[in-house]
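This section describes the prediction task in plain terms. A model, or a person checking by hand, is given the sequence of a single protein chain and must write out its three-dimensional structure as a string of tokens. No templates, partner chains or ligands are provided. The sample shown here is typical of the held-out split.
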Amino acid sequence: MGFKCGIVGLPNVGKSTLFNALTNSSKAQAANFPFCTIDPNIGLVPVPDERLDKLVDISSSKKKIHTTISFVDIAGLVKGASKGEGLGNKFLSHIREVDAIIHMIRCFDSDDIQNVNPDVNPIRDLEIIETEMKLADLESIQKRIDKKNRKNIEEVQIEILEKAMNLINEDKDLELLNSEFELKDIKQCGLLTTKPKLYVCNVDEESIAKGNKYTDEFISKFGDQNTLIISADIENQINELGDDNEKKNFMEMLNIKETGLNNLIKKGYNLLSLETFFTSGPEESRAWTITTNCTAPKAAGEIHTDFEKGFIRAETVSYDDFVSNEGWVKSKENGKMRLEGKDYIVKDGDILNFRFNT
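The expected answer:
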């Protein structure tokens, strides 16, 4: 399954530089002028997981297949984007396709990099972007609940859209929808302002370890649970180092414990309540992404829909047991393999082998 994150923000805040760093590529053109990105760039990134490396060794797997995360670099939005300013609604529409939004926020001073606003103010910048998304949602809602269109929409969707419209007009948080409606129904509405959000404060090299006055102000208002401090430029420099020891030494010099990618993945998994299960054998060891509290048949469906439809049982070993027993054979011999049925809730790190009817 993986998940898809859209990187949004004002022009020249470092979105394309971060995208290049995260995807370790040069797909995204990074330049010092607004609207450098015209079409959204999409990068598919394998999710690092040391557990998968261990499973490959134990099972002597021919292939190692990571689960993935997609990053979408969306053009810089400006005040008035919902009305066509800058690159307008074309790019707001790209945000509707992602699972979560990464708000890229400028938290550094620079005379060399243009700023579309006269000063650095991360809270104001975030409010500009969120206002444009709210206005775009309002326009979308009004079209969809129009008399000639609403006959094609389920009643619960109409209720959510009308409630969302009232909340936006009253300048209230759309998270209030969560207390009245099912999450799956809210997601189906495709509203920008209901998508989960991560905040990335882009800083200079001196501010990586401890932040600065801009990050302090931002975190005091929005908290640190879904906020990361990253230097997109330094992340790029780390990726340009080919040797792992060089990367490690460079990070230690800058007092960085983990890369921005690893931090983003951890925060993203937590934000979206995602977990990982594995399949492992001589042909391949593979990681799969599921939501928390996922049943065994649903997990099987991530591999193939036929696995879910014809699900019989799941041979299950916890990661720790699989490692300590050095694979499937000894796990079975030592009673560490369990046969789980349709009601089993898959746990993070489980190694599964599904039995199903064709």
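For orientation: The first strand starts at residue 3 and ends at 8.
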